[in-house]
Design goal:
mainly alpha, 370 residues
């Protein structure tokens, strides 16, 4: 029992933090402000249970695939991460640690693909029940009683006075939109500003989002293991860093614009810009062994960002993805460990692998939360 103690304590801590975060999403208030109590906390389980079911299913997909391959792995380590403000989801995810060396492309492929496929299924189930059993407008009026003073549909109020409300909007992937259009009742669907108050839908939305992030075909992410098995080491050494460059390049798009310097800028803006350039360099610092090459790539990407914003002044990426660019490029690594077998995967695995890549496209959201 002692060897499971860390796993159990981390899991219980993550149940607590995700429940706190769930309550904050449901009611649109922060616990640290003293606006919520135990009754609100209990409602948070409506988010934490389905979301942790997704996360646990994903990780145990990897775990059981490794066990099937007779490769030693740990149980999942959950990472609690509540920070006491709205938009925290209460966790930084979970991971399992592989204790045995893996030398086979098929083993990497099987372990990598099992997690996202299993987790995505749970996310879709959450969305199905969330849309099928969606409450009426009285649910939103219970959270926002101020809307009741409006004589018409509260949706009209939000549309007419959008700038007057602090709104959180969930982006919609193709798969999310399919679930909403197929199973959602148009008469019950809330205004887009209010979707985040629905815990099952929020859990399913986050499940698809994290499935897409895990399926990024880079390094040792699940998508990296899958694509490495599909295309082999030579092609993967080109594709993986290219996807990282595109991810970071898109994420930072629009953060700095030439027009800002044209009207005069203070030293703080210059400092922020140079820090940003160095941050991008850190994301790319392990692509080439030569530091000069990494700096050339960094400056080229930043220059392209500035030129694009000059050409299209309103263009914007999603800065939230920069954290993942740093985690992948600086911590996890851009390249895949070598394997002994060089032969292609069988047809069954190839079909499944390309379907997983299609799942990445269907789940990816350019602007997840705004």
């Amino acid at each position: 029992m002692k060897k499971y103690r860390t796993h159990i304590l981390l899991f219980l801590a993550t149940v607590l933090t995700t429940t706190l975060a769930g309550a904050e999403w449901i009611y649109g208030k922060a616990f640290l402000n003293g606006e919520m109590g135990m009754d609100h906390f209990k409602e948070g389980f409506k988010f934490s249970i389905p979301f942790l079911l997704f996360l646990t299913t994903h990780e145990f997909g990897h775990y059981f695939a490794a066990q099937w391959k007779k490769i030693k792995v740990t149980l999942p380590y959950y990472i609690p991460g509540w920070i006491g403000i709205i938009m925290s989801i209460g966790t930084f995810g979970a991971f399992i640690r592989i204790k045995d060396p893996v030398y086979s492309r098929k083993d990497f492929f099987d372990i990598g693909i099992a997690g996202p496929l299993a987790g995505a299924l749970v996310a879709l189930v959450c969305l199905y029940f969330g849309f099928q059993y969606m409450p009426g407008d009285e649910y939103i009026y219970g959270i926002h009683p101020e809307y009741q003073s409006y004589p018409g549909d509260y949706r009209e109020l939000l549309d007419k006075n959008a700038s007057a409300f602090e709104a959180i909007t969930l982006g919609k992937s193709m798969l999310y939109s399919f679930m909403e259009n197929t199973f959602g009742n148009p008469d019950l669907l809330p205004h887009p500003y209010e979707l985040s108050h629905y815990p099952l839908i929020l859990a399913g939305f986050l499940g698809l989002l994290f499935t897409a992030i895990n399926l990024l075909p880079i390094g040792q992410l699940d998508g990296g293991h899958i694509l490495y098995g599909l295309v082999g080491p030579k092609a993967f050494r080109v594709i993986s860093p290219s996807v990282l460059v595109l991810l970071v390049g898109y994420s930072g798009l629009g953060m700095f614009q030439v027009q800002e310097w044209a009207v005069g800028a203070d030293y703080l803006l210059y400092l922020q810009f140079f820090l940003y350039v160095y941050f991008v360099y850190l994301c790319f610092s392990k692509i080439f062994t030569n530091k000069t090459s990494n700096w050339i790539l960094t400056l080229a990407v930043v220059l392209c960002q500035l030129l694009l914003t000059q050409w299209q002044p309103g263009i914007m990426g999603y800065p939230g993805f920069l954290a993942f660019g740093f985690l992948i490029g600086r911590v996890l690594g851009v390249y895949h460990p070598p394997t002994f077998d060089v032969g292609p995967l069988g047809w069954g695995r190839q079909i499944l692998g390309w379907l997983a890549m299609l799942l990445f496209v269907l789940c990816f959201i350019p602007y997840p939360i705004s």
